[in-house]
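Dear U.,

Please find below the material for section 3 of the report. The protein was modelled together with manganese (II) ion; I have listed the sequence and SMILES used, followed by the predicted complex structure.
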Amino acid sequence: MQRYMGGMATQRQREIFNYIVRTARAEGAIITTHDIPDVDGLGCAHGLGRHIGGRRVAIVTGNTIQRTDPLVDKLGMDLKKWSEIPKDDGRPVIVVDTNTPSLMRSANGRKNNILAVIDHHCVTSTPLDADVFIRNEKAVSVCEILASLIPSSRIEGDPSIALALAVGIYGDSDRLLVADTPTLRVFDDLARIHGEKRPAIDALAYPPLSARTLVDLLKDIKHLRTETYRGKLIAVGRTTQEIPAVFAMTLSNMSINVAVAVGRIKNGVYRLSFRVKESDAALGVCASEIARETSEILHMPKEMYGGGHGDKAGGVVYGAYENVVGAVMKSAKEAIDRALGRRA
Ligand SMILES: [Mn+2]
């Protein structure tokens, strides 16, 4: 009997995973994740790549950001860009940490030949078209799903996999704040295997923001639109950060109930990052619903709808900035109505 660290996979999913790994070992694989990847997506890609092994496995991403550089360096990851992959590259693609086509814009036109999606987000209305799906919305991090799919003995034999998965879990659980006891146990096992202490993992998952970034974030705050609705503070605003999640997270840390950062991709095209305070998400104010409804109001095509979790979500929308802000405000209020209405 194989043993596993995590409990976030069923026997059937482990069989599917074995099929994915067998196929990837025979044909090579391109492992990818959502655009502007976070440590969960990158950690999972690294762990999966090491587990498959061989020289025909490439990890391909869109642009990465400074915040993930320490982990990428520490793991010695060799990240490729989609532009380096020939159009007729026949290797099957494995996508981790998203099932949403609009969050994989960098792979535009290369989304065919997807062998598998391994993810912990709710299904988007028009998810990626893959041969097989391994999904578990209960998992706080896709890295915990991978720790439930790769046998323990294998992870124990490769501390680099253990570190990648530990950092991913730590990063996606808000520094373990939203990790329950079984998840904490998985994290502790992984950290013990690599021998890395908590402060070192913290520095890989949450490297301190530079002074330059802090100054920019403080400027962003000046342009914030805020409204109090049924006792909840909603804040929406443009950010200078290339990854709007940095701004959304900053606002969320200030206990704003619904925080939405609007990053400009180009004129009329915006990347949105949604954060709902944990206690409000528990009440039923759902970030992924706000993301989806914002896309609906802005008449986005279905395959572009945003999505994510109850407390965090993302999306890409087209429209004039004022309309985007208006759509976000309306969606946030409706989500609050639904949550509070349900309780009334
Ligand atoms: Mn994740």
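For the text of the report, you could mention the following: The two ends are 50 Å apart (CA to CA).

Regards,
Y.
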